[in-house]
Amino acid sequence: MEADKKIGLTASELSQIWANYMNASLYNCILTYFNEKVEDEEIGSLINSALKLHQKQLATLTAIFENENHPVPQGFTDADVNPQAPRLYTDGYMLQNVLLLAELGMTAATMAISVSTREDIYSLYSTTHRDYNELHHQAIQVSLTKGIYIRPPSIPKHKEVDFVKKQNFLTGWFGERRPLLAPEITNLYSNIERNQLGVATVTGFSQIAQSKEVRSYLQRGIDIAKKHVNIFSEALEGSDVSVPMGSDSMVTNSSEVSPFSDKLIMFHTTGMIAQGIGAYGFSISTNIRRDIASHYTRLMGEIALYSEDGANIMIENEWLEEPPRMVDRDELAKTTSRKE
Q: Facing residues of 260 across strands?
């Protein structure tokens, strides 16, 4: 183990650690605020567990950066959160947020494991995955207890195995459309849920953001997410599949004092967009009906452009922290020439 630690981090390992630190510092701020505002004891206990998990991650990741002589990212600090600001979200929203956080955490940890070769890093993300898995299980149990968790739709049992016999199994633009397959239902349903939670998140942000430019950007995101929900809902309803219902009641009417900095708001919003692009890409890979694949491709392009506009706002305000990158050899050569 000690000899293994002397081996430098690969670019893959460093990229995962850096992203993990940024997200852990982000959620450390968000969960600190939630922990201050939550009213329900069971949900509060869950939030406290999530907060301790991210505080532990920050300590571990900071030590890795320092031991490797890499600069510790700035990320997000106490300056980016005001726990004393008025309550912006309901307990139900906070619970759903932690549930999605745990889901995304498991996915990110799995990715990190798959690109890690150094034993200590591999072990770190194996433990991280178990931690998020436990948090996810707890969040589901609390959601079921509170009657908040909405189970995905079921489909009738089949009596026998069947095989595709016609090419029109793939079509969907014209003529009769076949009913949705279980993988297609799964992804449409999940993408609706993520977009609905995104609408609630960004609605709250738009009420308290300080910059007019940021508020305008957030409002545009709300409109885009609602449009995507409508498109995916129509696809489900076309096969008589129930649609998960969103709720505007997850956001309070607070608008005077912001719990979060505009920097944090923009990073979190563009991060949700990146997650959406990944989810749509995965949905395409498991989708067979062409009309639905066309929806995902078109909508993925739309949110990619929206994400770029967000990155430009962050660059203009010097909010976009740069990930570790390769040395620019040409610039290094120019610098050396000037010294000579």
A: 81
